[in-house]
Amino acid sequence: MALSFDPLTLPVLSADGHLAPPPPDRLQPEALRRRFRLPPAWQPEIEGEPRFNDRGPTPASVLVPLVQRASLSVLLTERTPHLYDHPGQIAFPGGKVDPGDADAVATALREAEEEVGLPPTAVEVIGQLPPYRTGTGFVVTPVVGLVAPDLPLKPDPFEVAEVFEVPLAFLMNPAHHRWHAIEFEGRQRRFLSMPWTPEGEHARRYFIWGATASMLRNLYRFLSA
After folding, report:
1. Residues 88, 128, 98, CA angle at the centre, nearest 5°?
2. Structure confidence by residue, pLDDT tens digits, 139-190
3. Rounded to whole angstroms, how far apart are CA atoms 10 and 143?
4. 44 lies in a domain?
5. Burial of 202 (0-12, 13-18, 19+ CB in 10 A)
6. Does residue 153 fall inside a structural domain?
7. Structural domain contains residue 35
8. Which tens digits make up the pLDDT trace of 46-66?
């Protein structure tokens, strides 16, 4: 679904530098396994978005792949510009539930394999986050998994323009969480962005926003609780 506004042009209303990031030791694989195994009492901060269409709720699932480098990173994709839903946006690998999928985990693993060539056997699933409702009608379950580094991925060129990684510590630092707002159907809609520019002379800027940023914000709240 094409947007009626360009999120990159909207001003930044505020950032959350007053909030503390989770302790660094919570961003280690074993600590993440323990936290999902014995979760704290917490509530997701952002549960969904205002609806943009009349389509009924569509169950979906995404994989939040945490790549096990010296410091964990999050594997993300840039969707191709011709797709109907969320064209050109930064996203997790994922999609809607198929009739043959046993559960949300099966959907996330199948979609990750179809989109970026990530074998299900290479993913250690450690937990899930609460479902997130997108403005386009998807009810998305984020499935969190640990992934070995430097796997020979094969992105589907129809759906995926690029695959890249962002340090988990950067995304979990609320100083990088920026708030924007736009008027929609007579109401102000607030949304987050987490722009990231890797080091390098010719590095490009990745504008992470919308549903992907909201799910990352919920992961931040989970790890900070």
Report:
1. 60
2. 999 999 999 999 999 999 888 999 999 999 999 999 999 999 887 666 778 8
3. 30
4. no
5. exposed
6. yes
7. yes
8. 998 877 666 778 999 999 999
